[in-house]
Amino acid sequence: MENPFRAGMRLRRVPPPATLVILGVTGDLARRKLLPSLYRLFRKGLLPPGSAILGVARRDWDDEKFRNMVREALDRFVGKGQDERMWEGFAAMLFFCAGDLVDAEAYRTLDDTLISVDAHGPRNGNRLFYLAMPPSTYLDVIDGIGRHGLAGRRGAGWTRIVVEKPFGRDLESARSLNRTLGQWFSEDDVFRIDHYLGKETVQNILVFRLANAIFEPLWNSQYVDHVQITVAEDIGIEQRATYYEEAGAMRDMIQNHALQLLALVAMEPPITFAAGPVRDEKVKALMALRPLGGLEVDKAVVRGQYGPGLSQGEAVVGYLQEEGVAQASTVETFVAMRVFIDSWRWAGVPFYLRTGKRLPKRCTEVAIQFKRPPLPLFGEDVAAETEANVLAMHIQPDEGITLKIASKVPGPTVHVHSVNMDFRYGSSFGAAADAYERLLLDALLGDSTLFARGDGVEVAWAFVDRIIERWRHVDAPGPRIYEAGSWGPKAAEDLVDADRREWRRL
User: Fold this and answer.
1) pLDDT in tens, 20-30
2) Pick the catalytic residue: 195, 226, 257, 394?
């Protein structure tokens, strides 16, 4: 008999009516991602009647002006020519509250507006707050929500909060954020969102491992030679110099995206596919990361900074020439590193992580390279020209999975050539759902499986902080300059060459 809990988690995909409060609704995130994703959910029948979307911002708007802004955002990011009846149904869910959340009066206005909005439909006080605001405001806004009674239950309803990354800028600030959240919300009601975890191929890592009996037995140090995780961007910092000068690639990408992908690959199978067990195993995997500190960092981590070069055929400036960047900045725009997970499953298997800006292409990939056959059965020459088996999970832009295998070339002699077995979401299932659609729906459902947990965030920061602390020392190697449009500094190649391995060509 099937576990009823598992069946319930699989089938319960339409949330109860609720009010989604978007704090900072006039910002780029809300326009580009949140509002279009909510509209798509509405079109699919996944936002039930009685739901409401309350935008909060400092603009002196009313509901009508807000609805006009939303329509413009949908025309731009979803496409013009929306069905008018569908739009009218969605527009009826939209409300606006003007207020500056540094002011106590704004929270009282928000409270009154929520009561008024609740009166329009059967929402039972269900509320989801979404912080679509600068991270520097998080602590004050969360505290304001709590102190003005907005975090408590209303009737039989629930109150949840979604927090966008970054979750702090170091271990100390992450702990401060967790303490403030914990003062007003239970951990089950906190949803730390990393949109990478909503991508179909990321979700499919566990399904691929655990729903196919042929792969999980190979998912260990006996068969895996090494793992590569690449998060590459072809753009520069654009207009984000203020943020990037404080963050750098280590904080911006490694601490969250790359380590979350690593945890999904390295974790043990959970006892059930539910939030608690899945996140327990992810945290355990992160806790098993061998710490890097002191001179070990110099050997295992390479940091780089892009210089002038060509990107997509156009000449671009280097990082130090970007507007708003300090002329003597040592902020890294590229990181490559070798890490180990000290567990029975992964003992001795290196995980190579790399991320960077102004690389040749935008792509995110997890690649598991298996060991070569123990005996060159078809001769040394054939063995030398045969590539190792690689299982590559393409996270973006073209989501799918590729398995590289060796095959005999037709003919009278034994000649072996590597071929790919490809699966693409687009060709098999049509377009994959936007990551924010899945994550917003899960937050409304109260399913936190794909969201980061507070203790996991702290474990990741503890690992990263030791590396950043080494970089502050005067004798630490500075960032290596690499040409824009290349795959990073030569030192990154040397890192894997020393292990007689090489980065994958993407």
Assistant:
1) 999 999 998 99
2) 257
